[in-house]
Every structure is written in C-alpha cells, then in structure tokens.
Amino acid sequence: MAKEPLPELVSLSISAWSFKARFALKHNGIKYRTTPYMPMFGEFFLRMRLGDWKSKVTVPVMFTPRDGILHQSYDIARWSDTHSARPGAERLFPDGKEPEIRSWNAKSDTVLFFGRQCLVDSLLSDPAQLRKTVPGGLRWLGPLGVALLRLIVTRLATKYRAEGSSTSLAQALEVLREAQSVLRAQGGGGSLRGRYLVGGGFTYADIAIAVASQTVKPLGPPYATSPRPPLPQFQAYQEEFADLLEWRDGVFAQFWPMDSERKAGKAQ
Ligand SMILES: N[C@@H](CCC(=O)N[C@@H](CS)C(=O)NCC(=O)O)C(=O)O
C-alpha cells in the first residue's frame, strides 16, 4: 500500500501565527514537513498552488493529505487536535471549551496585530535593527539582503495596515492584563506557573497568549529560532507583566516538545 504523504506546513519562521500552529502540531506529535515561505517572493507560488489570485494570502497554510487546505493557524491547531499522534497529549480544544478558546485566540491576534505593526515600524525606522533581523537565508547577500528585507517589510506594512491600525497599544495591554488577572485569580498568590486560562488544564488558549506575550519580551532559542527584536513600545511594561512572562516561560518549559526537535537535530 502506498504511504500517505506527510502534511505540509508552509510557514514563516519569524511569524507568531506560524509559531502558534507549530506549537499545536508538535504538541500533538504530528509528523509534517515544512516549506519555508518568503513574503513577497513566495506569494506568487503559494497563490499558484492555492489557485487563488484574489484573496489576501497569509501563512501558515497547511496542505493535508485528506482534509484539503487549512488557511488559518487556528484551523491548523484544531486539525492537529483531531489527528493527534501523541498518546496522552492534553487536548488543546476540550469539549465545550471551543468558544472560550476561540475568544482567547482572537485576543491573542489583537496583541499580535499591534505587535506586527510595531515591529514593521521599528525595522523601517532603525537600520541597525533591520540589519540584525536579516534572516539566515538572505544573510549571504550582504547589503542586498538588507535591501531585500527592507522591501519585504515595506510591502508587509502596506498589506497589514488595516489590521495594525484597527488595534492599539491600549487594547494590546488590556488583553495581557486580562490574561494576567485571570491567571492570578486562580490561586492564593505566588507564581502563576502551572495555571491555565481555560478549564483548569493546558489548552490552545495558553499557547495563543504565551505566544502573544512575546510582544513584551521575545523568547529566544531554543523555542524561537529566528531573531525577534524587542518592541520599544512594550519595553516599559516588562515589570508590570513579570508574572505573565514567568508563566509564559513555564508554559514553554513544560509544553514545548523539545525532544522531537533534539532528535531531529534542529528546530524548525
Ligand atoms: N489569520 C491568519 C494570520 C496569519 C498572518 O497574518 N500571517 C502573516 C504573518 S506576518 C503573513 O503571512 N505574512 C506574510 C505575507 O503576508 O506575505 C492566521 O491565523 O493564520
């Protein structure tokens, strides 16, 4: 019998949405192959594969062997839960909790949309930061790599202006404050480690907010392999969100499936 092809994740390593999807896939022990996506240059080929020349194309996109194409990180995470290959993996979408989890994911997107706007602005206004952020695949090009990155970031700024300007620092901070206070409300003080946003157990809501809290303080390797510059707009809030960041570090320490990556010899 012919072997079923692996699902294929088209992903952008620096992107928080690709990060959310990868976390869920790894949590569920899904074997998949990754096709790196390069904004602007990769868009034509992705559109060709999708047969879509009209809608806004974003990544991650997952090509599944039997269930068609998944266009949203959230749908990829849900798919991973119904195709989990890891016995005993916590269900990321327990029965009856989906609306609450969906709402936390939307809140995570509010933070991330604003965070992306800040990232794009800071890269365009700070050449030193832009140089530091050139991805490995473009570094060999030297100054041309920096020029290409500037072009890509300028294009992203235009493409995502609507999402960026529909959110604000105040809204992003409100989400993070809400998450921190929901976690704090669950116990008698002390560390927030081991607490969860929904239903007393680890769910995709925790992944979504843990990833969004990178806006306040980026995660480094081994979890995030692409360099992600700190966002100036959020620096002043690191102290206020110290508990949330400690919780976030706990989520990654406990749930990011490191072993499979170590075995594969590299992080994806
Ligand atoms: N709603 C989408 C959002 C994904 C998204 O905004 N992806 C951006 C990440 S920066 C992207 O694909 N950028 C590259 C491009 O637009 O070419 C999801 O959750 O998957």
Cα-based radius of gyration, to the nearest Å: 18 Å
Shape: globular
* Low-pLDDT residue intervals, each spanning 5 or more residues: 261-268
Question: What is the distance, rounded to the nearest whole angstrom, between the alpha carbons of the first and last residues?
Answer: 30 Å
Bound ligands, named by name, code or SMILES: glutathione
Major beta-sheet overview: 4 strands, mixed
Helix content: 40-55%
Percent of residues in beta strands: under 5%
Structural account:
The protein has 268 residues and is mainly alpha-helical. The protein folds into two domains: 8-83, 3-Layer(aba) Sandwich (Glutaredoxin); 97-255. Helices cover 53% and strands 5% of the residues. The chain is built from 13 helices and four strands. Helix 1 (16-27) runs parallel beside helix 3 (73-82). Bound molecules: glutathione (GSH). Glutathione binds next to helix 3.
SSE blueprint and pairings:
Elements: E1 8-11, H1 16-27, E2 33-36, H2 43-50, E3 61-63, E4 69-70, H3 73-82, H4 98-125, H5 127-133, H6 136-139, H7 143-159, H8 161-165, H9 169-184, H10 204-212, H11 232-235, H12 242-255, H13 258-264
Parallel strand pairs: 1-2
Antiparallel strand pairs: 1-3, 3-4
Helix pairs in contact: 1-3, 1-10, 4-5, 4-7, 4-9, 4-10, 10-12
Bound molecules: glutathione (GSH).
Glutathione binds at residues 12, 15, 17, 39, 43, 58-60, 72-74, 116, 159.
InterPro entries: Glutathione-S-Trfase_C_sf, Glutathione_S-Trfase_N, Thioredoxin-like_sf
Protein name: GST N-terminal domain-containing protein
Domain GST N-terminal: 15-82
